[in-house]
């Protein structure tokens, strides 16, 4: 084998090794990305639970008069109280607008 062919073979081998290493690095990055996305989703769920809990705790404190709050929060609490009162007052099964059962369609007589 002459030097030119030997050099080409060596360059080709190096190229294959570089491609293989890049593919391995890509796989590692994709796995890490999946873990990061899963962690982020878990953190979002925890954040949402904590915000809900904070809202419920704040709502209780405001309703009991234990905390003075800005007017914007008071309006939200007042609106929430209105909604809850409407939910409690409405009988179950009766939707707004008075949903009615439809009468069955009249059957045709056979001629």
Topology:
Layout: H1 3-63, H2 71-89
Can you walk me through this structure?
- The mean pLDDT is 87.
- This protein is mainly alpha-helical and 111 residues long.
- The chain contains two helices and no strands.
- The protein has one domain.
- It starts with a helix and ends in a 22-residue tail after the last helix.
Number of strands: 0
Poorly predicted runs: none
| Derived structural class | mainly alpha
State Rg. Answer: 34 Å
Mean pLDDT metric: 87
Care to give the gist of this entry?
With 111 residues, the protein is mainly alpha-helical. Helix content is 72%, strand content 0%. The chain has one domain.
Based on the model shown, name its key terms:
elongated, 2 helices, mainly alpha, 72% helix, 111 residues
């Amino acid at each position: 084998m002459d030097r030119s062919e030997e050099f080409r073979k060596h360059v080709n081998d190096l190229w294959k090794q570089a491609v293989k290493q890049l593919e391995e690095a890509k796989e590692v990055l994709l796995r890490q990305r999946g873990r990061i996305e899963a962690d982020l989703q878990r953190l979002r769920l925890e954040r949402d639970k904590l915000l809900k809990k904070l809202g419920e705790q704040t709502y209780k404190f405001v309703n009991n008069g234990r905390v003075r709050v800005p007017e914007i929060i008071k309006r939200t609490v007042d609106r929430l109280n209105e909604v809850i009162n409407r939910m409690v007052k409405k009988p179950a099964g009766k939707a707004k607008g008075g949903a009615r059962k439809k009468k069955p369609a009249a059957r045709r007589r056979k001629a």
